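Task 17 of the worksheet. Students: predict the tertiary structure of the chain below and write it out as structure tokens. Keep your answer in the requested format; marks are given for formatting as well as content.
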Amino acid sequence: MTAVKNRDNTMKKTFFNVQIHAFTREDVFNKCDTFLQNKRPHTLYFLNAHCFNIAQKNPHYYKALEEADLLLNDGIGLKIASYFSKVRFKENLNGTDLIPQILTFAAQKGKSIYFLGSKPGIAEKAAQVAREKTKQLKIAGFSSGYFNKSDEPKIIESINTSGADILVLGMGVPRQELWAHENKKQFTNVKLIIAGGAILDFISGEVSRAPKWMRKAGMEWIYRLLLEPKRMWKRYVAGNFIFFYHVLALALKQR
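Model answer:
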């Protein structure tokens, strides 16, 4: 695939055939601050091994990633793969840890949040939990991710009417990035759209996090595999083999 030119391409690095930001956490907060002061909606996505695999076979998803205003490295897979590329990631910027920190940052700035995604009732519960953890957090609204194409105008109107500054999506890969890429120009007040995968399930407590030592060691994927072996086997076992096949093939091709 040919890389798509991005407005912020000067800050991106070539990670095999994907353009990505090799940022620190502080860089991310500074960038989010800039986005929130701007007039147009900006997108923040995460790239892990699973996302990389999908990008190799889905050109629409690949384009959405390439045109993201921020694309961040997520997980141990990318760190290992970076040794076969010229990119060195400064920190593991996984969304499960980073998004709650962005919400705290947003609360300090007086910005409001809209949660969209997951099963009915989960976005509402996530909003309640997030509010309890960060007292000054403004929740503009929430809605389930279980909606059809015909429901989209109503969802978008709800987000616009709420006046939310930040939209957090928990709709899964690649649906959330494709949806944001297709609809971002329709938002009148949202300045930052974050694609967070299972983030609403984690915030609400619907899905438990791995112990801290496993997270620090980059082994949370093993915990999730043990938690849901039938659902996660294809993604984490077969998927990791496919990811490193792509990485080695692309590394050899580039050399």
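Marker's comment: Residues 229-254 form the longest helix (26 residues). The chain has one domain: 9-204.
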